[in-house]
Amino acid sequence: MSERKVLNKYYPPDFDPSKIPKLKLPKDRQYVVRLMAPFNMRCKTCGEYIYKGKKFNARKETVQNETYMGLPIFRFYIKCTRCLAEITFKTDPENTDYAMEHGATRNFQAEKLIEEEEKRIQQEREEEELNNPMKVLENRTKDSKLEMEVLENLQELKELNQRQALVDFEGMIDQYREMEKREREREKEEDEREMKEMLERALVKRLRESDSDSETEEESSSKQSNKSSSDKPTDILTTDKPTEAEGASAGGAKKAKVESWERSVGTLGGKGALGSLVVRKKPAVTVSKPSSVTETAAPAAQTDSKPATTDSTDASKPITTQNGSSSLSLLGAYSDSDSNDSE
């Protein structure tokens, strides 16, 4: 098999290259090339700005009868991007640049214009000095004066630099850094001191609060202990007795012992409750004649004394109610009622 990509061609043995006809192309023929705008330009027709680096499909041709030291000069044709007007420029090998030829004006050529002006002045001066020796002397004196002025200015600049050199900028910077460091340390110490004071104040406040809390806890615990040392909550029913009953029992009667089951059940305190349960028997009233007042006084006294004795004997004995609790208030009530009857 033959190769897919053939690089070498076959030349037969009787091949004669001189027999190949040559193409006769015109010397001013044009080629289509892709290029970028070599400088900023402005179209004369529409005023459109074309910036450096803009790409164009340009036509290139060789300028006839114009060379520079044997180098050909090329001309390029482009079209404006807005109005499609034709713009031409050509190469400038003398200045290694491009020269604007037709259709637009070149922008931003200040540096190039200054250089051209300097070259023109230099050429004029050389032409004047060529045939005039006095002009040469004048130009030399001017140059010497200008050189002296430049030297004086340079000397002034050196003196200024020496004055500034006396100032130790590194020392100043070090001093400033040291001062900043001291300031930071001082601020840090102040912050630490303030923080310590705040912590101390907070600690003292906590101690005070803890002391007050401990005092309140002790008081509450003491109260709780006192409450726990007292009797049961149901004991209030047995201990809450009226003062009248205590006064009646103070006459020599001994308090009865309260049993444990009575504490839980409680007693019926108060005169009202007992008065409703016990009903006193009223004695019989004797009616006598007026003539025999003295005769009936003695028997009445005897009859009244008997119940009094019985009441006094009964007062020493406790009376037991239905629920089994002793009540001294009932005895006091009986004694009061008997004394009223005797009167």
Topology:
Layout: E1 31-36, E2 41-43, E3 49-50, E4 55-68, E5 71-79, E6 86-92, E7 97-102, E8 104-106, H1 110-131, H2 133-166, H3 169-229, H4 236-239, H5 243-249, H6 260-265, H7 271-277, H8 293-316, E9 319-320, E10 326-327, H9 329-342
Antiparallel strand pairs: 1-4, 2-3, 2-8, 4-5, 5-6, 6-7, 9-10
Helix pairs in contact: 1-2, 5-9, 8-9
What does it look like?
Strand 5 (71-79) and strand 6 form a beta hairpin. It is elongated and about 185 Å long. It has helices at 110-131, 133-166, 169-229, 236-239, 243-249, 260-265, 271-277, 293-316, 329-342; strands at 31-36, 41-43, 49-50, 55-68, 71-79, 86-92, 97-102, 104-106, 319-320, 326-327. The longest helix is centred in the middle third of the chain and has 61 residues, at 169-229. 52% of the residues lie in helices and 16% in strands. It has 343 residues and is of the alpha+beta class.
Defining key terms:
5-stranded antiparallel beta sheet, 343 residues, 3-stranded antiparallel beta sheet, alpha+beta
Write a concise synopsis of the structure shown:
The protein has 343 residues and is α+β, with helices and mostly antiparallel strands.
Overall shape: elongated
How far from one another are the termini? 168 Å
Q: Report the biggest beta sheet as strand number plus sense, adding barrel if it closes.
A: 5 strands, antiparallel
* Helix vs. strand class: alpha+beta
Beta-strand portion reads: 15-25%
Order of helices and strands: EEEEEEEEHHHHHHHHEEH
Number of helices: 9
Strand order in the sheet with the most strands: 1-4-5-6-7
Uncertain runs: 240-253, 289-335
Helix content: 40-55%
| pLDDT averaged over residues | 75
Task: Round the Cα radius of gyration to an integer and report it.
Answer: 72 Å
DSSP, total strands = 10
